[in-house]
Write a structure and sequence with these properties.
By secondary structure, this protein is mostly helical. The chain has 29 helices and 2 strands. It has a two-stranded antiparallel ribbon with strand order 1-2. Helix 7 packs parallel to helix 10 and helix 8 crosses helix 17. The two termini are about 25 Å apart. The relative contact order is 0.09. The N terminus is likely disordered.
């Protein structure tokens, strides 16, 4: 098949329980009443603890959480690049420029350096980080994973500091338990173990840096803290626009939980609103004329099946069912999947019991959260519930469609609310009546009996999941085995195997086995969803490699019938025509590819090859020369056909010139 660089692509009532009535007595020479229990003494001890000692305790817990984060994800350092890392790192021309690409990264859509795709966004900050890393360390997945762990450790610490402030710095154990659960929860492996998800990590880091700075401003009133909060919120937006949920979170925090100075609360909310508007204005200017994820026509069915709901099914009911998966995964994070695409979650109607249970769960959470927020001053249960709902709502696929029906990364923010509620439950039901949420709670046997097994269970699950993220093949293969109705996962396994066939060092028997395995996975994918153009194109390519040209042509024709502008199908069909010596048909299709993507300069070589075989030598030379910039790293691949063409023209001097360049 003619040359191609195109890879097949694998989007206060602060009391939470009632203390039992206790007999009070007045001590001699002391008018202060105290109980026969040590509750008051414990509280008094905590209140009189020196500020320096509190800071030391806080620092120690931050260090412990950081160490836990590093230990849990240390085994990702052995992993390679995986899945979409190619889009934002290894196959991204702007990242390849290193420092020189930073300016363009800040002024272009998210995937500009990979391809001018229709479905695009504006998330430059993580890309800038990747460009800097490439400049300093080259394409090194070890450093990529190391920085992901570093950012995650920062996220964990900032979350703990914020929760400690939210809890009035009197329930440090509750803040610690909530943050510990966040750090060990296996559902976060997709974000940390996949280098590409750096955007989610940076977004979370600066979002909680913003909340901490805003909180300090609310208490101290320093203008620099207000400006710092707005700036870090802006940086969060530059990493990923989903932090827009903080438009609801910020007023929730500063009008209901830290609202001693209403004027400062107004300034904080206004700053967050202005920051949001500034970002949206910049984003609109950058993406002017570019369709975004809200455009349903840009969403692929196998990524989000709600883009094409069949008759007899309900898109809203299916979306509600999908939302139930988040609750399930927070409690039982198994099995975890890198893709929940069609048909992991089936199309359903409102007659489905799981839809009704999911709907009831979310309505109950909303009702309880709002009721407690209004009726109970500074109720932390309400905060946890409403934080979860506010941050997960963006991914409900009810108000608008997003790039996937379900994604573990979508609940990275929302899990904070879940973890807080669990920690409050531990305090209420396991802490004991004489424990106020201070550090002494961490020594309670019931609390330890809950925490130790949970840390061991979730910790082992996280470490094991990290190993599955070793590379694209391992994650796709593992998840396909756990999601036997997922068409996209089967297709992706086949695509990775097909891409590996380009390794010229493969032994013939291994190549043959990998080819047959790829065909099997493509066929399994088509059994689930027979109308996926990418799958047909991939299967056709394998038949081509086996010299089964008629079967290959049938698959590519089916792919083009489903998507007439699919580049890989067009390229593969052109290659089939070329192999059959139908050069005019091949030439027409190669030209069509250039119309779709003018930057795909490899096809100039393919066009030149068609002209050569049609004996249109002058046209062949013109097109070969246009392709030269594409073959900088492998000049022989372009200089050789140029030399051969010149010899065919009888121009020996020019032929010798290019032959010498090959040597």
């Amino acid at each position: 098949m003619p040359s191609s660089s195109r890879k097949l692509c694998i989007p206060q009532k602060a009391a939470y329980f009632t203390y039992p009535k206790q007999t009070l007595f007045v001590a001699k020479n002391n008018s202060t009443p105290r109980t026969k229990t040590n509750t008051v003494a414990a509280k008094a001890e905590e209140k009189t603890m020196p500020a320096t000692e509190k800071k030391v305790s806080l620092s120690k817990l931050c260090i412990i959480l950081t160490i836990i984060s590093f230990v849990l994800y240390a085994n990702t350092l052995k992993n390679e690049y995986a899945i979409d890392d190619g889009l934002v790192i290894t196959h991204n021309t702007l990242i390849d420029k290193g420092f020189k690409g930073v300016t363009e990264l800040l002024t272009t859509p998210h995937l500009q350096g990979y391809s001018k795709v229709v479905n695009d966004t504006y998330r430059p900050l993580s890309l800038v980080a990747f460009a800097i890393e490439k400049e300093l360390f080259g394409y090194n997945p070890v450093m990529g994973h190391f920085f992901n762990i570093l950012w995650f450790g920062g996220c964990v610490v900032l979350l703990f500091l914020f929760l400690n402030k939210l809890l009035g710095q009197k329930k440090i154990a509750v803040a610690f338990i909530a943050t510990l659960l966040f750090a060990i929860h296996p559902i976060h492996t997709e974000v940390v173990a996949n280098i590409k998800s750096r955007d989610e990590l940076i977004c979370f880091f600066f979002a909680f840096a913003s909340l901490n700075l805003f909180w300090d401003y609310a208490n101290k009133g320093k203008t620099l803290q207000l400006l710092g909060g707005a700036f870090t919120l802006f940086l969060s937006f530059l990493s990923k626009e989903t932090v827009i949920s903080f438009v609801a979170v910020v007023p929730l925090v500063f009008f209901f939980y830290n609202n001693e100075d209403k004027r400062r609360s107004i300034y904080i909310t206004a700053s967050a609103a202005i920051t949001t508007l500034v970002f949206l204005g910049i984003r609109m200017a950058i993406l002017h004329g570019v369709a975004t994820a809200g455009d349903i026509s840009s969403i692929i069915f196998t990524d989000n099946q709600l883009s094409k709901v069949p008759a007899g099914a309900s898109g809203i009911a299916t979306a509600i069912l999908a939302m139930g998966y988040y609750i399930k995964l927070l409690f039982i994070p198994y099995p975890l999947l890198c893709s929940y695409s069609y048909a992991t979650i089936p199309f359903v109607t409102f007659g489905n019991i799981w839809v009704l249970l999911s709907l009831a769960a979310y309505l109950s959470l909303a009702g309880i959260g709002i009721y407690r927020l209004v009726k109970i001053k500074k109720d932390l249960w309400a905060f946890g519930i409403l934080f979860f709902l506010a941050t997960i709502a963006l991914f409900s696929n009810i108000l608008f469609l997003v790039g996937a029906l379900v994604g573990e990364r979508f609940v990275f923010f929302g899990s904070v609310g879940f973890c807080l509620v669990v920690a409050l439950a531990v305090e209420k039901w396991l802490g004991g009546a004489n424990v106020s949420g201070g550090l002494q709670m961490l020594r309670k046997p019931k609390v330890l009996l809950f925490l130790v097994p949970l840390v061991l269970l979730f910790g082992n699950m996280t470490i094991a999941r990290n190993k599955e993220w070793e590379n694209s093949y391992t994650i796709f293969k593992n998840d396909a085995d756990n999601a036997v109705t997922n068409a996209r996962l089967y297709c992706n396994v086949a695509l990775v195997l097909t891409d590996n066939l380009n390794n010229e060092a493969l032994r013939p028997d291994i190549r043959a086995r990998m080819t047959e395995e790829s065909i099997t996975y493509f066929r399994r994918s088509l059994e689930i969803y027979p109308d996926d153009a990418h799958t047909h194109a991939g299967l056709g390519l394998l038949f081509y490699k086996k010299h089964m040209l008629d079967s290959a042509e049938a698959q590519e024709n089916r792919a083009l019938a489903l998507d007439p502008r699919l580049p890989e199908a067009i390229n593969n069909m052109a290659g089939i025509y070329f192999e059959k010596k139908q050069y005019e048909q091949a030439l027409s299709l190669f030209r069509k590819i250039l119309l779709i993507n003018p930057d795909d300069k490899v096809d100039y070589k393919n066009i030149g090859m068609c002209h050569y075989h049609m004996q249109a030598y002058d046209s062949a030379i013109v097109n070969f020369r246009k392709a030269i910039p594409y073959f900088v790293n492998e000049p022989k691949l372009i200089y050789q056909p140029i030399a051969i063409t010149y010899r065919s023209m009888g121009n020996v001097d020019s032929a010798v010139k290019y032959e010498q360049m090959i040597r």
